Amino acid sequence: MYRSNHNGHNGHRNGHAQHFLSDVYISEDAFWSLSLAAVETFRKECFGFLVGYQGKDKWILQRAIPHQTAQRSYSWVAPHAPARQRIEGAMKSLFLGEHTIGWFHSHPERGGEIAVPEVSDQDLDISKPGEVILIMGIHSRRKRVGWRQNADGTVSGTLGNYHLVVAAYMKTETGRQRRLRVNCAYATGFNPE
Fold it and tell me: Do the domain assignments include residue 125?
């Protein structure tokens, strides 16, 4: 989803404080994979798998694996079904105690509009109930800002010439979206010059 007037991360929607279903903790390795996948495909969307495990009221994201053969566009991305099945089959034998907990993709800027990492109807359509959906808004950096945890549950900051906002959601059994709070101690402690 795209908006030209981004009004910040105040943690409130329609005048009410945001309630988070649970937390997603992103490891250093996953942070780099997510960020660099969005930067690599900038102006087009990236797609990949999230690997980790579920704890009590939280998800631990250990790895983010970009899907190389996904079909990409400026406003959509689609996984290549046979490749996705091969990857998921191979991952089952690689990560003991970890499994696919969801997927990620990016929303790049388009036409100078700031990309907002909000889940779309299409995102919900391809998601299974209980999967983590991680979306990164990425646009050209206007100024350098340090990485921070935002009141709306996102994590944001600049990396090179890009500004990223990382948000997480989950599809409920009823097909609705619920916001998850993103936590990444590595990112919020990472403030490059």
Answer: yes
> Is position 91 within any domain?
yes
Domain of residue 97, residue span: 17-188
Asked if the structure places residue 39 within a domain, the reply is yes
What is the count of structural domains for the chain?
A: 1
Does 193 fall in a domain? no
Q: Say what the alpha-carbon torsion angle 23, 27, 33, 37 is, to the nearest 10 degrees.
A: 20
Tell me how far apart the alpha carbons of residues 46 and 67 are, in angstroms, rounded to a whole number.
8
Collect all residues with Cβ–Cβ distance below 8 Å to 54 and sequence separation of at least 6: 60, 101
Q: What is the pLDDT along the chain (193 residues), one digit of tens a residue?
A: 323 233 334 344 444 456 677 999 999 999 999 999 999 989 888 889 899 999 888 999 999 988 766 666 666 676 666 766 777 777 776 766 788 899 999 999 988 788 889 988 888 888 889 899 999 999 999 899 999 999 999 999 999 999 999 999 999 899 889 999 999 999 998 665 4
Question: The domain that contains 40 carries what CATH number?
Answer: 3.40.140.10
